[in-house]
Design goal:
Elements lengths: L2 E4 L2 E4 L5 H17 L17 E5 L3 E5 L2 E5 L14 H10 L8 E7 L5 E4 L11 E7 L1 E6 L9 E5 L4 E4 L8 E7 L11 E7 L6
Antiparallel strand pairs: 1-2, 2-11, 3-6, 4-5, 6-13, 7-12, 8-11, 8-13, 9-10, 9-12
Bound molecules: N-(carboxycarbonyl)-S-(naphthalen-2-ylmethyl)-L-cysteine (MD3) and fe (iii) ion (FE).
Amino acid sequence: TTVDIAPGVTLLPQRLPAEAQQALLADIRRIADEAPLYTPTMPRTGKEWTVRMTNCGPLGWVSDRDGYRYETTHPVTGRPWPQIPETLLALWDEVTAYPAPPECCLVNYYADKARMGLHRDEDEEARDAPVLSVSLGDTATFRLGGLERCDRTKSFRLHSGDVLLLGGDNRLAYHGIDRILPGTSTLLRDGGRLNLTLRRVNPAG
Ligand code: MD3
Ligand code: FE
């Protein structure tokens, strides 16, 4: 089943069965062994994010004192990012109609108290490409607004195994994660939530 939550925003509840979630989690653990989760800092202030991050793919999204950008290497290890797992590349092909593969898979880890403030994903040149999000672990309350920061917002829950496709009219909509609901999933041994966002950065062709 699919749920249209706004124009261009489609929720695929429980798109990944339990076994697929386990397999994907194993892929992410392998990625985090090679490219450890680290605590990014905010532009200008240097304040720490509550979310820990890593990436896979040719490009990784990073945030530090100098701003937001895509980089080919991990900011701590200096090594190239690991490859995007085949299962995620296949999911992108199944769910998006985009004629080129994603270049970045941003991995966000939320411990119990982590959150992500309202923002837009606007660092990608390929604005025609959707963003594909996969949730694993504890349930999160997700907030979706409009194209202007002051637009009214709506809240939704994202559960483990849910896939969210963000494109079309709302590709540049404001969104954020208000809170994690601890203890709502047993997938992650130590609790918390992983979110994977697949992004195309450079226009296809
Ligand atoms: C709605 N991550 O990494 S994913 C992010 O759950 C980010 O970790 C959140 O926002 C998370 O930038 C939310 C869902 C998401 C991603 C991109 C969007 C929602 C979006 C782009 C436009 C509108
Ligand atoms: Fe975002």
